[in-house]
Amino acid sequence: MAEEDVSGSKAKTCRIVRNPQGEERGHVCVLPNKDLDRNDLIWNPSDTRPAKNLRSTAELINELKKEQADKDSIEQTLEFVDARLRSLDASRRRAV
After folding, report:
1. What is the 3-state secondary structure (H, E, C) of the chain?
2. CA separation (Å) from 55 to 6, 38, 41, 63, 66?
3. How many CB atoms lie within 10 A of CB 41?
4. First-to-last CA distance in the chain?
5. Which terminus, N or C, of the chain has the lesser number of Cβ atoms within 10 Å?
6. CB neighbour list of residue 9: distance below 8 Å, 6 or more residues apart
7. 44, 26 in Cβ contact below 8 A?
């Protein structure tokens, strides 16, 4: 599965997840929660299933495995999530 950015903004909030054949499988988004000290990790599959607010990266890995993601795709997605979480944390620290 390959990932690509969804938004055109400087701070990327979502990634498109594609399978090895290039078909879009869903989006992974990391957004600030209304509780200022938390973040939302959202998996939005491309089929008719509703989006899920995931509790952990382990749950994200399980969702990606259900979509038959390979090891490299999972690693790339986790790197995106890590970078986004660090970015949100840094912006919160600047705001304080």
Report:
1. CCEEECCCCCCCCEEEEECCCCCEEEEEEEEECCCCCCEEEEEEECCCCCCEEECCHHHHHHHHHHCCCCHHHHHHHHHHHHHHHHHHHHHHHHHC
2. 22, 11, 7, 12, 17
3. 20
4. 38
5. C
6. none
7. yes
Report the distance separating Cα 95 and Cα 92, nearest Å.
5
- On whether the CB atoms of residues 92 and 33 are closer than 8 A, the answer is no
- Nearest by Cα to 2 from 14, 15, 18: 18
Q: What is the pLDDT of residues 14-66, one digit of tens each?
A: 998 887 877 888 999 999 988 878 899 999 998 888 999 999 999 999 999 99
| Closest-CA residue to 10 (of 67, 84, 68) | 84
Do 15 and 80 touch, CB atoms closer than 8 A? Answer: yes
